[in-house]
Amino acid sequence: MYDVIVIGSGPGGYVAAIRAAQLGMKTAIIEKYPTLGGTCLNVGCIPSKALLDSSEHYHNAAHTFKTHGINLDNLEVNLEQMIARKSEVVKQNVDGIQFLMKKNKIEVYHGLGSFVDANTVKVTKDDGSSEEIKGKNIIIATGSKPASLPFINIDKDRVITSTEALKLKEIPKHMIVIGGGVIGMELGSVYGRLGAKVSVVEYLDAIIPSMDRTMGKELQKSLKKLNFDFYLKHKVTAVENTGKEVIVKAENSKGETIEIVGDYVLVSIGRKAYTEGLNAEAAGVKITERGLVEVDAHLRTNVPNIYAIGDVVKGAMLAHKAEEEGVFVAETIAGQKPHINYLLIPGVVYTWPEVASVGYTEEQLKEQGVKYKTGKFPFMASGRARASMDTDGVVKVLADANTDEILGVHMIGPRTADMIAEAVVAMEFRASAEDIARMSHAHPTYTEAFKEACLAATDNRALHI
Description:
Helix content is 32%, strand content 25%. The protein has helices spanning 11-22, 38-43, 45-63, 79-103, 162-165, 182-193, 213-224, 280-283, 319-333, 362-368, 383-388, 416-428, 433-437, 448-457, and strands at 2-7, 27-31, 107-110, 112-117, 120-124, 130-140, 144-146, 159-160, 174-178, 197-202, 228-232, 235-241, 246-251, 257-262, 264-267, 271-273, 306-308, 347-349, 354-359, 372-378, 394-400, 406-413. The strands form 5 sheets. Strands 1, 2, 3, 4, 5, 6 and 17 form a 7-stranded mixed beta sheet that branches. The termini are far apart.
């Protein structure tokens, strides 16, 4: 009998298992696939960032090295090697998770985990054999998979998801991206940097629509320099693979139909919770109409000893959100009183420039009727950004009009994925814009832009614009 059984070994699952083991609980983890790490490490966060870095190196070599005084001849992309390096990065990471399981004495079972009852899970291996294990507490961490539209046939050849986009054999001439969210913009920019034309078809009126609208506008401006076209407020009605081409038909807000012809279509309209084969009903666990596992504020399902975390429950589908929930549940089972502030879980888009955000957007504050003030600082005015030729973007700080407390921070620019952590710390400690403005920031650094935006939010005191 285990104290804790975790079903799924993505960032939520493996972190939950590690924390449970640290707290002295006998722990097991079940993974359907041969390698640990889930979507994030195998076909999500890690491989996409590897390709983003490689493609950015190539793009800089092709477009900015000459300005830096570095002359190159006969520059070319070796896509096979780029994909191979990505695979090696993935292997190093998943091997690292395997090491952590051994280090923490967590027993690993490979196979499909399905409930027999509220304390028993059957593990079915690929060869059809199975065994049952029992646990006092069970954590569902089965993650998500790419969503699609009913009329789209994802053939994994010309019509692909993010999984196939990570292992293409050629650079597309024209990639059509359905969906202007994070995944589409990141993978679209990989191939845009390598020379592909990219057309983005988005149903809403902005890209990365869940983030502050200023970020979407700024990112759109930057991506247009990479030969991106945008079809906003367009509803996809048909996708046809003719063999060597793909035709996407979309309807605009006036009811007019357009046709876009490319050689690959990336379907990136989001992800949906994955509970296939879990047999949750055998344990009496409720699944919502949207396919999510229903949980309370403590991430407990309607069955007291069963919890759920990560993409399979409500909230943003982010690896670091799943990790926080994994720790939260392990500590809850151990009798502790952990806490997660969901408002302060940052979101990041790993394009270049990067986009990072935490707290309320300007649109949310307007909707809530909160009186706020805004401070902005463009990277064009940053000495560090000028030195590195990364002058696209802006830092935007939203502060309470009366108390000056920081309510939201939105950044697009170089290394904002790392810079946002300062904003998270500030907001966790209820800092004011004045607090950040009074702190010394090393010069020259990108983080000075955050300080300057805070100065701009406090009586328009920015020093360098």
